[in-house]
């Protein structure tokens, strides 16, 4: 069975001290679990310290953003070369908060994806429709455009390294309403079909599509059962290591019930 990808985006949370305490607990709590590929995405200021802890574990480490240039006059930005030196595995690209507050566009997402691939990172590309786009019935068009532009000029060989996260904007954060598992499953199937327009079937089967947006202890299992949901990308419910582990336990419980049935 393929490993389920389970990761958490910390957003602008956790000082270095908090990051170290969380990471050591998570390593301890998950060290015997082989069913999941766990990843954590802390703020830049925590990355070096967290890397020292995770480097002897199976946990992958990501950064929340990256400039596409190696260096230059880009005050406040972080380059692929800097992240490579720390030993980062994943670059999260195009999260809706970056699209909403920091002028991230489909075109800058594409530049970052190409740069991340060039430097050997896994680009974790976030896509998702806004509430008004859902209400006007253009979710499929929005998602198809985001995916096609993000992957523009990405070769078949490189597409194998890409991860995609479907995060409906209206589902994210404290005021978010989680997508129903059925709705999420339908959009994941749509993403899968958009990818099939771009790449051959073998490659598409290997591209994981994660769901994110108010994943919690109640909806993690039904989401995991949907078609083409290959992982969960979690905010609040995974910011406490025990709460994150609880999501893993719920999934394991449901898997063992299935095996018995
Ligand atoms: O934005 C998210 C992951 O990138 C999800 O955040 P929440 O799980 O807190 O809604």
UniProtKB/TrEMBL annotation:
Please name the InterPro entries in this protein's record.
Aldolase_TIM (IPR013785), TIM_sf (IPR035990), TrioseP_Isoase_bac/euk (IPR022896), Triosephosphate_isomerase (IPR000652), Triosephosphate_isomerase_AS (IPR020861)
- PROSITE patterns associated with the record: TIM_1, TIM_2
What keywords are assigned to this protein?
A: Cytoplasm, Gluconeogenesis, Glycolysis, Isomerase
**What is the active site of this protein?**
95, 167
- GO molecular function ontology, one term from the record: triose-phosphate isomerase activity
- What EC number is given for this enzyme? 5.3.1.1
Which biological pathway?
A: Carbohydrate degradation; glycolysis; D-glyceraldehyde 3-phosphate from glycerone phosphate: step 1/1; Carbohydrate biosynthesis; gluconeogenesis
For the ligand (substrate), the binding residues are: 9-11, 173, 214
Reading the lineage from the top rank, the first entry is: Bacteria
UniProt catalytic activity: D-glyceraldehyde 3-phosphate = dihydroxyacetone phosphate
- Subcellular location per the Swiss-Prot or TrEMBL entry: Cytoplasm
Broadest EC class? isomerase
Instruction: Give the main location.
Output: cytoplasm
Which SUPFAM superfamilies does the record cross-reference, listed alphabetically? Answer: Triosephosphate isomerase (TIM)
Q: Does the keyword Endoplasmic reticulum apply?
A: no
Q: Name one Pfam family in it.
A: TIM
The keyword Isomerase is assigned to this record? yes
Instruction: Report the sequence similarity comment from the record.
Output: Belongs to the triosephosphate isomerase family.
Q: How does it assemble?
A: Homodimer.
Q: What does this protein do?
A: Involved in the gluconeogenesis. Catalyzes stereospecifically the conversion of dihydroxyacetone phosphate (DHAP) to D-glyceraldehyde-3-phosphate (G3P).
Return the protein name.
Triosephosphate isomerase
Give the originating organism: Defluviitalea saccharophila
Q: Which gene is this protein's source? A: tpiA
């Amino acid at each position: 069975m393929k490993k389920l990808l389970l990761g958490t985006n910390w957003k602008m949370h956790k000082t270095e001290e908090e990051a170290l305490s969380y990471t050591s607990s998570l390593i301890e709590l998950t060290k015997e679990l082989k069913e999941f590929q766990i990843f954590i995405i802390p703020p830049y200021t925590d990355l070096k310290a967290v890397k020292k802890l995770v480097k002897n574990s199976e946990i992958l480490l990501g950064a929340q953003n990256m400039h596409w240039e190696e260096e230059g006059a880009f005050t406040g930005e972080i380059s692929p070369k800097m992240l490579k030196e720390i030993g980062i595995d994943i670059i999260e690209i195009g999260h809706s908060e970056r699209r909403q507050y920091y002028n991230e566009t489909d075109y800058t997402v594409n530049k970052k994806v190409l740069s991340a691939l060039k430097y050997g990172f896994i680009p974790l590309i976030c896509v998702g429709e806004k509430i008004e786009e859902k209400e006007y019935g253009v979710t499929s068009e929005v998602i198809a455009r985001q995916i096609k532009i993000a992957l523009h000029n990405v070769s078949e060989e490189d597409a194998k390294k890409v991860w995609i996260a479907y995060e409906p904007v209206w589902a994210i954060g404290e005021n978010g309403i989680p997508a129903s598992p059925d709705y999420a499953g339908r959009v994941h199937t749509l993403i899968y079909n958009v990818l099939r327009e771009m790449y051959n079937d073998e490659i598409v089967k290997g591209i994981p599509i994660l769901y994110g947006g108010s994943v919690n202890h109640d909806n993690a299992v039904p989401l995991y059962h949907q078609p083409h949901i290959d992982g969960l990308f979690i905010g609040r419910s995974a910011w406490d290591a025990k709460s994150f582990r609880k999501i893993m336990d719920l999934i394991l419980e449901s898997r063992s019930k299935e095996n018995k049935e």
